[in-house]
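Appendix B: a complete holo record

For completeness, this appendix reproduces one full record from the ligand-bound portion of the collection. The bound molecule is pyridoxal-5'-phosphate. The inputs are the chain sequence and the ligand SMILES; the output is the full three-dimensional arrangement of the complex, encoded as structure tokens. No fields have been trimmed.
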Amino acid sequence: MDIVDLRSDTVTKPTLAMRRAMAKATVGDDVLGEDPTVKQLEEMAAARMGKEAGLFVPSGTMGNLIATLVHCRRGDEAIMGDRGHTFLFEAGGVSALGGVVIHTLPNQPDGTLTEWALKAALRPDDVHHPVSRLLILENTHNRCGGVALPAAYMSWAGQFAHANGLALHVDGARIFNAAIALGVRAEQLVEQADSVTFCLSKGLCAPVGSVLCGSQEFIRQARRVRKQLGGGMRQAGVIAAAGIVALEEMVDRLSEDHRRAFSLAKGLKEIFGVTLPMGMPQTNMVFPALPVDFPGTAAEVAAELSKRRVRVGVVGERMFRMVTHYWVDDEAVQYALDMFQQVLSDLRRV
Ligand SMILES: *Cc1c(COP(=O)(O)O)cnc(C)c1O
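The structure of the chain with pyridoxal-5'-phosphate bound, as generated:
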């Protein structure tokens, strides 16, 4: 068996269909607006999100950054969860490059922010305060266990934002995982959003890229900010071609990843003492924790697993993150479970 890489769905390599589409893609200079393949991807993405326009960007991080820079001026405040990707894992870009203040609120276990916390976070119109300008929601919510935030909450939060003069940006890196898990169309989750970005390069298997979607006017401004950040790409149709295959062929099959994450979680729970502090997975992520009495750390276990060709993420002293994706089949799940059990009992003995 090859290496079973459960560290993330970002490790997915492109499919054969993608490599074929990339080889024969029609391309042009996209900074001059002349790449038909990029245009096609942007239109498809916008349609899937129910928005007027799309912008192909090199990464989800840049998509979130561009959106924040378009919505906010320097010194403005963006409200988001304290477990949010933009706050934790994007190197402080919105502050470093946009002078935007991040105002974090406690993420609830289901990934949401409460109404009372949101109300309390709103700044009065007073020269002492930064201007509250933007609400950022994440769906699925990565560090809350890959939970899917339901359409009703997304729509309530959007209405709350707009009623209080905020724009809503959705970090929908895995919005299709959310849609599949909830049995809705992705556009229903972002109906109230002024902008949304999603990744092609995670569970959808494309090698590179995300798409930022919003109104024509929003995307017109976003295009300039992308250029400012150095994200204008020339014959980008070569990679956009893989993104088109991702949208056409890789969305519906995400349910298989969810099914496998569920059986992985079930198997882990059966290993003596292992717990799932974030509960059973709703999508493609499992966060198992070591038994309380286990004489070692998650990092030590991960290192041993790696010797047995199973790679997992370590997200704390005693917790792991395991993510299922296209290149992890049923046999790989079983192998990972066997190795996990083996490593735990080996380490208990030493
Ligand atoms: C992966 C991810 C991103 C963006 O990641 P890139 O690696 O920059 O494409 C943004 N938000 C969430 C929730 C993510 O998981």
